[in-house]
Amino acid sequence: MSRREPSQVTPGDDDDEALRWAGDELRGGVDPLTRNRVAAAATASTDDARDAAPATPTDLARTAATVGFAVLYLAIVVGWILSVQITGSAATDLFSQVAWQFGEFVAIISGALWYLTVLTLTPDSRTAIRVGWFALGVGVLLPWPILLVLAS
Amino acid sequence: MSAGAEGQDVVMSKGVVSRVVVWVVFALLYAYPLFEGISNLIALPPYYAANGIGAAVPWWLLIIGVVAPVLLYLAALWIGRGRELFPRTLLLAVGLATANALVLSAVSWASAVQPALS
């Protein structure tokens, strides 16, 4: 993004004139509006540089990992759907039953939530970090109730 | 100038209020898996002892059941610090779902490793 220095503003430029105030030069030559815009532009340009830096292989690996883990997490969700069929609460009072049902429900959606959260919160992180969070989730969220039944 | 600063204060305090509301609501939701973990920790050892398998108490599962909800809640707060309200809420929701999944896993492991009652 190109930025026009206040000092380069030509007297005839009405738009820039309108955004400037008398005395700007005395306060460092940058009015608050322009200063904020410059800061935003600077951040954006470094982001661009960082995004542009990884070459195609990294992008490919990143996409492959993201898709691969999507399949794994789908399997986890299916596993939990099967798992809650075989777990049950011995509690008889209403509150305990509702709480137990809620627990089973959030266990079912835990895989989807974890996947979407990693996807949402690591858009700019390195691929290794994203894959690390994905892998941690798979380890933690394994649907043991159904796995133990299948293993026995 | 002062009106603008006041407006900013109102926005900031609104942000703090909604953040605290999210913390409290999720603390209540995390309380259930924690309660389950604590009640298992208290009730299971005497039950095992009464059935003559007191040596086989799966302490590590009982400890996971108590520690996991607390650790996940704190981790969600820690990872969410400095973020917007939505990511904070999302992280707490993931932690809650994980805590409940871990509780169910721990229960199924406990019954899988439980020796046959005499």
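Chain A has six helices and no strands.
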